Amino acid sequence: MSNAGPTHHSRVLSKYSIIECSTENSATWDSFVKRLSGNYCQLFGWKHVFERTYGLQTRYLALCSGSTWLGILPVAIMPHFPGSAVKAVSLPYCNYGGLLVAESVDADILKSEAIKYLTSVGIDKVELRDIAPGLEESVEVTMVLTLPESSELLWKQIGDKARNQVRKALKSGLTLTWGREQCDDLYAIYANNMARLGTPVHSPEFVREILSNFPETADVLTVRLDDMAIGAMLVIKHGDTWSDPMASCLSEFNKLNPNMLMYWEALRAASNAGAKSFDFGRSRKNSGTFRFKKQWGACEIALNYHSYKNGALLASASTQFYRGQSASRLASVWQKLPGFIQMRLGPVVRRWLP
User: Fold this and answer.
1) Cis before 110? omega within 30
2) CB burial readout 152-174, b (16+ within 10 A) else e
3) Of 130, 157, 187, which marks where a domain is finished?
4) Last residue of a domain, one of 88, 108, 130
5) How far is Cα 166 from Cα 260, in angstroms, rounded to an integer?
6) What is the structure's pLDDT at 135?
7) Among candidates 81, 24, 71, which has minimal Cα distance to 47?
8) 296: which of 67, 128, 248, 289 lies 20 to 30 Å off by Cα?
9) What pLDDT, in 10s, does the model give residues 5-61?
């Protein structure tokens, strides 16, 4: 593990104090997230994922008035070349993260204080990834389905087309298995899909660390043909929401509809467990993945990725790279590389891409 910076440090800024949290604060941190219905990416366990997988320096800030926590901001500092700008993201490799504040607290003031503090410790740029309901102009969204009280009601809700595709998958002999011991199956299918798309793959340790740091809430679902896993999903259960930050199927089996069966099982299990919603994750509006999620009845919720340099709001964020010509050129080159090179270099490259 790399040096993760100060593990527990307090500094007073104006009438607020800022604590840099360490493992000894983790229970208080997670209680704050749960009490304020924060998202699963804001949980403390991600600090260990970033540090142990990629050696990133992290700063998990608690903004306080006296001994009372008013807000939190978790950030990880991205790799950078000597002499280049130091950038922190809340949170890298995640769909969102951002600032979480207590009720009746001015979020803009706390955000300003947090960014001022990060600037004072040598971080030039900060990117915040917020869930922003009602932000109409955003093209980046997360797709969330409100779940009914039972899977029977859900089956009726999803419509004839989806039901027929699920039935086809079942008639093809596909089966479903839950279990964290399927981590290697999940990673192999995910890596295969990333290679096909021309996207550098995460390291296998990234998946293992997520499962290790969320032992009670992270699970793996696979869809199988005979004994072979042909689709897999990472599911994280947080509060009354289930999310799938990672899900893939082997494209050569698409005609059997494994993706439809896998998502149906995840939604069915979530509904029967009493979850109120299922978060399908980030998509660009009107993309193929957007339309896939829309067919289940999921609604779009805007994501607001915004960056600051020395406290001043910038006009661009990291998604402009992902969706731009540079990313397209990278993907076209990456797809042509032999598989063993993709697997070897992918995690090295991915570490730099938030």
Assistant:
1) no
2) eebbebbeeebeebbeebeeeeb
3) 130
4) 130
5) 6
6) 85
7) 24
8) 128
9) 444 565 655 588 999 999 999 999 999 999 999 999 999 999 999 999 999 999 999
Strands (E), the chain: 9-13, 16-20, 57-65, 68-77, 87-90, 100-101, 125-131, 140-146, 174-178, 218-225, 228-238, 241-249, 277-284, 299-309, 312-313
Reported pTM: 0.92
Q: Check pLDDT > 70 for residue 324.
A: no
What is the per-residue DSSP string for 3-56? Answer: --S-SSEEEEETTEEEEE--GGGHHHHHHHHHHTT--GGGSTHHHHHHHHHH--
Which residue shows structure tokens 């993760």?
Answer: 4
Mark residue 230 as left, alpha or beta (left: phi above 0; alpha: psi -120 to 50; beta: remaining): alpha
Structural domain tally of the chain? 2
d(CA 290, CA 351): 26
Q: Are 88 and 59 in contact (CB under 8 A)?
A: yes
What is the C-alpha separation between 332 and 352, in angstroms, rounded? 19
**1 located within any domain:** no
Residue 190 near residue 222 (C-beta atoms within 8 A):
no
Residue 209 domain-assigned? Answer: yes
Q: Same domain, yes or no, for 242 and 153?
A: yes
CATH of the domain at 248: 3.40.630.30
Q: What angle do CA 351, 285, 267 make, to 5 degrees?
A: 80
- Cα 29 from Cα 26, distance rounded (Å): 5
157 and 36 in one domain?
Answer: no
Residue 203 sits in the same domain as residue 284: yes
The single residue listed with the structure tokens 């011991």 is 181
- Residue 343 belongs to a domain: no
Q: Looking at the structure, tell me whether residues 158 and 271 fall in a common domain.
A: yes
Instruction: Give the model confidence (pLDDT) of 132-174 as tens digits.
Output: 998 878 889 999 999 999 999 999 999 999 999 999 999 999 9
What the block records as the tokens of 208 is: 């293992």
7 and 20 Cβ atoms separated by less than 8 Å: yes
pLDDT surpassing 60 at residue 2? no
